[in-house]
Here is the input.
Amino acid sequence: MKRQKGMHDEIARIAYELSEKRGWAHGHELEDWLEAEKIVMEKHERHARETEQGVDVIMKPREGFRQTVKKEGSYKKA
Here is the structure.
């Protein structure tokens, strides 16, 4: 839960920054959020590969709905 909250907060912060760069133009909120999700997920995937851990990723099935799935891989114990 704590990790999910942290990722949500990170996505929200980046979406805010993207909106700010756009000059707060209305009608781009979803676009900014999705771009922020992409940025955060790619960052976490890179980190996971570098540390040889699996990571939760968001995949888009054919039906068009998003779902979070576990990537296969080895997990290191802390």
Q: What stands out?
A: The CA atoms of residues 16 and 32 lie 8 Å apart.
